[in-house]
Automatic annotation (TrEMBL):
InterPro entries, A to Z: Nitroreductase (IPR029479), Nitroreductase-like (IPR000415)
Domain Nitroreductase: 17-75, 78-158
Keywords from the named record: Oxidoreductase
Family: Belongs to the nitroreductase family.
Keyword Oxidoreductase: yes
Organism of provenance: Leucobacter viscericola
SUPFAM superfamilies: FMN-dependent nitroreductase-like
Name this polypeptide is given: Nitroreductase
GO MF annotation list: oxidoreductase activity
Length: 191
C-alpha cells in the first residue's frame, strides 16, 4: 500500500486520490515557459459568486526577485523547504470590487480556484504545497497591493525531491501515511 495514495471510504478519481502536499521539492527542476498556463487556466474556470472571479495570483519562478520576496515572507518551517520549489504563488482574494463594493465570498471563491489549479497541476505531474504561514503585510508591502487585495495563502509548485534534503523533523512528516478525519465526523447532519 502506497502511503501517499489516499485510503478512501468511497472511490475517487485517481488525480484526487494521488494528490498530496510534499515539502521536498527537486532543486534541479525548473518550469519551462508556459508550463503553468494550464493550471492557471483551470483556476480561471473555477466557479465564483456572480461570476466575479475575485482571485488574483502573483507567480514567481525560483531565482527571480519576486520569488525572493515571497520566500522572505514565509514563516517557521516553511522557510526551510519552500525555497526549493520551482515556483511560489501568492493566492489573493479581491475582497472589494474596483468601486469599493464588498465581495463577501471572495476568499471562498479563491479557495475554489486554488483547488481547481491543484487538481490540474496533479494531472500534469506537478505537485503543490499550500501554506498559511507567511507574513501577509510583508507581501502587501513587497508587491504594493491595494487594500482590496487580500493575500490568503502561498503555494509552492514543482517536482518532488528527495527526503534527505529536509531537516529530520520534516522527513518524518513527509514520509508518514496520509490521514484524515472519518467522513462521518465531517457531516453534521444527514437526513
Amino acid at each position: 500500500m502506497n502511503p501517499r495514495i489516499a485510503q478512501t471510504s468511497a472511490p475517487l478519481i485517481d488525480t484526487l486520490a494521488e494528490r498530496w502536499s510534499p515539502r521536498s521539492f527537486d532543486t534541479e527542476h525548473s518550469l519551462p515557459e508556459g508550463a503553468l498556463r494550464g493550471i492557471f487556466e483551470a483556476a480561471r474556470w473555477a466557479p465564483s459568486a456572480n461570476n466575479s472571479q475575485p482571485w488574483r495570483f502573483i507567480i514567481a519562478r525560483r531565482g527571480s526577485e519576486s520569488f525572493a520576496k515571497i520566500e522572505s515572507s514565509l514563516l517557521g518551517f516553511n522557510q526551510t523547504w519552500a525555497g526549493n520549489a520551482a515556483a511560489l504563488v501568492v493566492n489573493i482574494a479581491e475582497t472589494e470590487d474596483a468601486e469599493g463594493k464588498a465581495r463577501p465570498w471572495a476568499e471562498y471563491d479563491l479557495g475554489q480556484a486554488v483547488a481547481h489549479l491543484s487538481v490540474q497541476a496533479q494531472s500534469e505531474g506537478l505537485h503543490l504545497h499550500q501554506m498559511g504561514g507567511f507574513d501577509r503585510e510583508a507581501i502587501r508591502t513587497a508587491f504594493e497591493l491595494e487594500a482590496r487585495f487580500l493575500p490568503v495563502s502561498v503555494t509552492a509548485i514543482g517536482a518532488i525531491g528527495s527526503l534527505e534534503q529536509l531537516p529530520e523533523a520534516l522527513r518524518e512528516r513527509e514520509a508518514a501515511p496520509r490521514v484524515r478525519m472519518p467522513l462521518e465526523d465531517l457531516v453534521l447532519l444527514r437526513d
